Amino acid sequence: MSIRFEQKQGILTLLTDQTAYQMQIGPLGYLLHTYYGRRCEGSFAYLHLERDCGFSPNPYELSYARSFSMDNMPQEYSGSNAGDFRLASVLAETEDGIRGADLRYVNHEIRRGKYSLQGLPAAFAAAGDEDAVETLSVTLRDAASGLEAELLYGVYEKQNVITRAVRFRNAGQKKVKLRKAASACLDLPFGEWDSISFHGRHAMERMPDRGPVRNGIQTVSSGRGASSHQHNPFVILCEHDATEDHGECYGLMLCYSGNHRIEIERDQTDSVRAVAGIGGDGFCWKLEPGESLDTPELLMCFTAEGLDALSGTYHRFIRRSLCRSPWSGKKRPVLLNSWEAAYMDINEDRILQLARDAKKLGVEMLVLDDGWFGSRNDDHRALGDWTPNLEKLPHGLDGLIRRVNDEGLKFGLWIEPEMVSENSDLYRAHPDWVLAVPGRKPAIGRSQMVLDLSRDEVADWMYETVARLLRENHIEYIKWDMNRSITDVYSALLPADRQGEVSHRYMLGLYRVMDRLVSEFPQVLFEGCAGGGGRFDAGILAYFPQIWCSDNTDAVARLLIQQGTSYGYPASALGAHVSASPNHQTGRSTPFGTRAAVAMAGTFGYELDPAKLSPEEQAEVTQQIGRFHEVEELVREGDYHRLTGAENNRYTAWQFVSEDRNESLFTLVLTEPEGNPRPLHLRLKGLDPERAYRVVWAEYAGCRYREEMKLPAPISGAALMYGGITVPRIYGDYPSVQALFRAV
Ligand code: DGJ
User: How far is ligand 1, taken at its centre, from the CA of residue 502, in Å?
Assistant: First the structure.
């Protein structure tokens, strides 16, 4: 049993192999949070001393005792306007103006298996894990409004993950509006913490930002209608001295792709509270009596073993218990995407030529990116008109696909179904289908507007359009793009008092369509994309097993982007391609082999015109693909270790280790070559100390001068991990070394 209830003390404890999480039904039914940390037994209520604290109010019933205040006791799920001045988890308002929520325990239930959420992505119990996952549901109630918050916990005993969500129910007689409906609140009453968040911009996503949690409130949020390039819905709280290999770390990852908000407050007593959930300033959800709303899921993880262990826990969890696609555990085809090869300058001949050239080099799939439909000759038009442009593709999509297949390649297609161009047949037929505020022209992003997916008919049209493409054509891969932030949030069909629901309804509409498509077409490999990594989150990964990581394909920029992404998300989910040099986004030139080594830390493919490569480079592609086939399972299923951190600007190194610790792929890219260089020493990770390893191959790229790797053969895992390796001297512009170790 991973969930225990001790009736006498009113203590509920959630246990995983390495963690314990505890709450107590306290005085007057307040649900107090008593502990989350390393696994240990017993009640932790003793830690939280009641005390009289100035300007911290007491519940009416205890007012003469003065020692119990909602304002300084750790709460499991904070209310509002009822005595706790720290971050609220819920802001509720009844139709007659009652504001706030004073939430008290009603009952709880422990169930086998994992709860699911209405219309939202959520983790599940994978086949074989059914007995190792349990659900706790605790219902709290605000007497004044009748609002109930059912706190849901999924306890993954073996995986050290606890998921959380809240089901709000209006069990009263009056309408209730929720202006804030967080998925979880986590009080850490003791300790000194750093926060690590992942900020960025288009083409430079998920840059780690670490600093101490200071007094006051800090917020990581997106109101862009997507989880965003700017602020990923993932935050780590860790001890000040936590490193990759030691220290307590908490992970808070929202399984949601829309507006989000993760707030962290350090209060008057230095206690820290994190509250995470749906964001967006305009959020307001109306619950009629009897109605309910599920919040997005939060994936929570604790480890005392540092950031490497935290990342590994998320990687394994996402692959096993979140990604439903059968592709999650399967080898993905090595693809060539037409975007950076040809942009919109495409036609059947050009695509077929790309396919032929790619096939010769060992590529397995040709992906036709933007520009194939309607009058799409530039990005000012035609989104929404998802029929092939017959001037470019005279034999239609079907004819092209057959020809590509005849060349021995699979075929994949780019779409951007959530969007519409003003200059399109779809917009001319349905101008009211876009999000737009009456009396105001909507803001334009990349010359396009956003379809109102909060409307069932629009979502149904979107499903039908994509389903028809998949039914009528032999498409084996879809790149699902989304190229602008969402503005002018107003839906033509909803009444005034439901307009605050539009952004979340948009997400529900999108998830419904994705769910239908991946269920109906499980054989199709879907890749998410939003101008690169603008919607790189656990919500998308519940449906699509991989996401195009960034529109920046520069290998050196990718070192930062992919490493930032790796804190939360597995390499199996990370779309990465080899592109041309000089790079189209940065103008930087990098060695071909280094570009391949970097792309091999993801799903691997190409995004260039093979005909523009020299014969030597073409031969190199074949070798790169050969190497990738050798390591792809290791990359997809193995444990990923960062060997360098943000503090190192000389080189970036990482390592994949197979689950059985039989194989490991080591990669290092030198970003800042030095004159008279200092030795470059690293300790490998994750190997079996008792076993001996041998270097199967070592591949150097971009070296103007290099020395050979000198390692005893065989060499013990202990030596590689504790003594480490001294990387031989390599000189050049962004040279790299990759080495495959195998146990003998
Ligand atoms: C943005 C994507 O991230 C690119 O890879 C490409 O598909 C373009 N959109 C096409 O418009």
Answer: 26
